Amino acid sequence: MIYFLKIYFRNELEKQQTDVALRKFAIKKHTSLDIQSATNNAGANNSFLGLEGTKDIKFTRIRTSFERVLPKLIISLPKDDLLFYKIRLSIFSTLVFFALSFGLILNLTFLILGKTTIYNFITIGVFYIFYILLFFIEFQLTKSRIKNAINVTSTITAEKYDVQNNAYR
User: Fold this and answer.
1) Which distant-in-sequence residues (6+ apart) come within 8 Å of 106 by Cβ?
2) Angstrom distance (rounded) from CA 66 to CA 23
3) Of 38, 19, 14, 20, nearest to 77 (Cα)?
4) Which of 17, 147, 163, 166 is the most buried (most CB within 10 A)?
């Protein structure tokens, strides 16, 4: 698949905190996250679905039924010592994006050749911009869930760590 964004960690500790946080708040699945439904209306503690592969661990955010229109993002954390994680769209979301892009380019070509009107081009352009907006909304929601999971696990770890004795309770 096409990974479009690579986010680097500052150090190994930040990678470990993110890995621990995502694992703690994930429901383990055994099928591909591309075809797995990520919709859940129950108020569970889990925020992500996770799939552990041989080379990486993939996560996707659990969404409510209202958020079903948002494109599904899949986060990939490599198991080796690389200090980054990658983000991509699911297969269906990628197909929708490419279909809209193809339609926009095709409409632009027909507009230049005079075989269509400006209104058709504007219509597909509005759908394209709307999809990009939905993508950024999903990206921000996913980013905030990751930060929240890291903060919660860091707080739990800090509470278990006894500062006076420099040891865990």
Assistant:
1) none
2) 25
3) 19
4) 17
d(CA 9, CA 88): 17
Per DSSP, the residues of the chain read: --EEEEEE-SSHHHHHHHHHHHHHTEEE-SS-TTTS--B--S--S--EEEEE-SSEEEEEE-B-GGGGGSPPEEEEEESSS--EEEEEE-HHHHHHHHHHHHHHHHHHHHHHHTSS-HHHHHHHHHHHHHHHHHHHHHHHHHHHHHHHHHHHHHHHHHHHEETTTTEE-
CB 4, CB 88: distance < 8 Å: yes
Residue carrying structure tokens 């632009």: 108
The backbone region for 166, taken as left when phi is positive above 0, alpha when psi lies in -120 to 50, beta otherwise, is left
β-bridge partners, 26: 48
Q: Are strands 84-89 and 73-78 parallel, antiparallel or unpaired?
A: antiparallel
pTM across the whole model: 0.82
Contact 107, 120 (CB under 8 A): yes
